[in-house]
From TrEMBL:
It is found in: Cell membrane. NCBIfam families: PRK11431.1. Keywords: Cell membrane, Membrane, Transmembrane, Transmembrane helix, Transport. PANTHER family: GUANIDINIUM EXPORTER (PTHR30561:SF0), SMR FAMILY PROTON-DEPENDENT DRUG EFFLUX TRANSPORTER SUGE (PTHR30561). Its main location: membrane. The gene is sugE. Belongs to the drug/metabolite transporter (DMT) superfamily. Small multidrug resistance (SMR) (TC 2.A.7.1) family. Gdx/SugE subfamily. The keyword Chaperone does not apply. It is a multi-pass membrane protein. It comes from the Bacteria. The chain crosses the membrane at residues 33-50, 57-78, 84-102. Pfam families: Multi_Drug_Res. This is Guanidinium exporter.
């Protein structure tokens, strides 16, 4: 259950990052509210997952899902650049996440 909550927390991090971008510096109410609500939910699920997962593993996986997810969403939804170097960096992050999961005792 902790891993499931951690993955959902990471996906919610992608949502709040995207909503924060759409909030235009918190000047738009609906994206701002979505940002705050999904931040709270994401942190809550991360906190729950940390009850049984090691800090380093949980935090790394959470931020990694958020980073790679926001990167992918930026390319798909916002038309951001998809250069070979940026994609390579995302692949390295995903590789690190897989290794972190494989090395976790929980």
């Amino acid at each position: 259950m902790a891993w499931f909550c951690l993955i959902i927390a990471g996906l919610l991090e992608v949502v709040w990052a995207y909503a924060m971008k759409l909030s235009d510096g918190f000047s738009r109410p609906i994206p701002s509210a979505i940002t705050i609500a999904t931040m709270i939910a994401s942190f809550g699920l991360l906190s729950y997952a940390m009850r049984s997962l090691p800090l380093g593993t949980a935090y790394t996986i959470w931020t990694g899902i958020g980073a790679v997810g926001a990167f992918a969403l930026g390319i798909v939804a916002l038309g951001e650049q998809a250069s070979l170097m940026r994609i390579g960096a995302a692949v390295l992050i995903v590789t690190g996440l897989v290794l972190m999961k494989l090395s976790s005792p929980a």
